[in-house]
């Protein structure tokens, strides 16, 4: 009976979001409350579990997501992201346009959310296409593959950050593993796959491909790169010092504090506020106004993450998690494969990569608790599954279709297959890395 209740809960969530078009946060609540009651929790315990799930999840995720959004918005609005893109094109030239735009997508994709990076890079892509008469999909797909991979694999993007917290992973190690996996996945889904699309002709609407307006006082090239990648640089320095210094030393507690993702991102936001803000002639009020706008942008995502945390807590409080662990363990599938399959199935049915990843993590949590599964790799496995087969129920599908002026068939042939390649190569990379860690 219990597996049936959980299956009906997942199906109801899919139906509410995908077919009834209910807001994802409201859908989570509408599913979580009756599910808790059906699993035997009394009304008071259901409400307590919902409150605890919301509080615990947002308490550990909100700072990272909000600070990451602040940094990304400042990088975009200051002109730093555009400076990075233009610099990359000037440095490596149009002969290597595919690889140049792929690298640009990687650099820009670390601080920027996918939609922001998409809208920022597309004008550059189309300007290169128009100026040098290159196939739009051939040069544009690698950049978007990089953006998509980072969105699915790497903190501080919302879904990977929430998965790290839910599954008890380490955000620094997950970032390092994710970056390692993202490179081959993006190369295969970007430049290699794009070579098969030369026959597809894009017809971008003229109104959507105007050159992006330059910022009034854009930062310099070096400033743009350093400010955008400041969290990565700070984390690398701190982790390097921790590895180099003897364990238990006097600096140990301070380095542990500085390595916390909240502290790293806070330092990056403060540093970028100066280097991309006040040092470029913006007032402190203007900088904080940009940060306030980032909070408004990310609030709906935080609510979805909180709703997923509430459902997870109901499953834990009712004891359903232990039953799920036993049932899934009986399938004989490795947990890393099982997590990918769950996320991929929900993604195909629902369209939202974020909801797919968070829902799959709630189901897989007991597996982590009852098996020696590496949580950092499970985060990446679920993240890879959440990218699988974007199609007609995904907003990203239509965004790509309209901007490139493609038919539905050609969008499935290009965008959807690109996402499948990212997802499958990501899973294979996770399994290979898991094998390597076990052997070592």
Task: Please outline what is shown here.
78% of the residues lie in helices and 0% in strands. It contains 20 helices and no strands.
Defining traits:
globular, 20 helices, Glcn_transporter, Gluconate transporter, transport, gluconate transmembrane transporter activity, mainly alpha, membrane, 440 residues
3D structure, described in words:
By secondary structure, this protein is an all-alpha fold. The protein has one domain (2-439). 78% of the residues lie in helices and 0% in strands. The protein is built from 20 helices and no strands. The longest helix has 35 residues, at 43-77. Residues 208-212 have low confidence and may be disordered.
């Amino acid at each position: 009976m219990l597996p049936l209740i959980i299956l009906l809960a997942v199906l109801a969530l899919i139906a509410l979001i995908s077919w009834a078009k209910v807001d994802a946060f409201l859908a989570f609540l509408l599913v979580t409350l009756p599910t808790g009651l059906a699993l035997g929790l009394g009304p008071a315990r259901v409400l307590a579990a919902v409150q605890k799930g919301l509080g615990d999840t947002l308490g550990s995720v909100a700072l990272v997501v909000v600070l990451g959004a602040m940094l990304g918005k400042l990088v975009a609005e200051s002109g730093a992201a555009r400076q990075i893109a233009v610099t990359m094109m000037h440095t490596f030239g149009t002969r290597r346009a595919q690889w140049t735009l792929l690298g640009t997508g990687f650099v820009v994709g670390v601080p920027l959310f996918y939609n922001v990076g998409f809208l920022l890079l597309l004008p550059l892509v189309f300007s290169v296409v128009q100026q040098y008469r290159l196939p739009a999909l051939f040069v544009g797909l690698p950049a978007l593959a990089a953006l998509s991979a980072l969105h699915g694999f790497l903190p501080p993007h919302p879904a990977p950050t929430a998965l790290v917290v839910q599954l008890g992973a380490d955000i620094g190690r997950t970032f390092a593993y994710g970056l390692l996996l993202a490179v081959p996945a993006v190369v295969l889904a970007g430049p290699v796959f794009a070579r098969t699309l030369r026959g597809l002709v894009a017809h971008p609407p003229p109104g959507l491909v105007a050159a992006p307006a330059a910022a009034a006082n854009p930062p310099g090239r070096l400033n743009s790169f350093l400010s955008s990648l400041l969290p990565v640089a700070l984390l690398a320095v701190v982790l390097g010092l921790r590895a180099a210094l003897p364990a238990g030393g006097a600096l140990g507690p301070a380095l542990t504090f500085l390595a916390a993702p909240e502290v790293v991102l806070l330092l990056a936001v403060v540093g970028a506020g100066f280097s991309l803000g006040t040092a470029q002639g913006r007032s402190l009020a203007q900088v904080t106004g940009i940060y306030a706008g980032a909070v408004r942008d990310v609030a709906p995502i935080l609510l979805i993450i909180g709703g997923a945390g509430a459902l997870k807590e109901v499953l834990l409080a009712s004891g359903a998690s232990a039953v799920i662990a036993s049932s899934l363990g009986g399938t004989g599938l490795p947990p890393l494969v099982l997590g990918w399959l769950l996320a991929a199935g929900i993604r195909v049915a629902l369209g939202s990569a974020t909801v797919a990843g968070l829902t799959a993590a709630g189901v897989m949590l007991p597996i982590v608790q009852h098996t020696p599964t590496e949580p950092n790799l499970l985060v990446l496995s679920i993240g890879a599954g959440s990218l699988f087969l974007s199609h007609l129920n995904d907003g990203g599908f239509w965004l790509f279709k309209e901007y490139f002026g493609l038919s539905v068939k050609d969008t499935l042939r290009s965008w959807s297959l690109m996402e499948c390649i990212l997802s499958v190569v990501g899973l294979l990379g996770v399994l290979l890395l898991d094998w390597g860690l076990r052997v070592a």
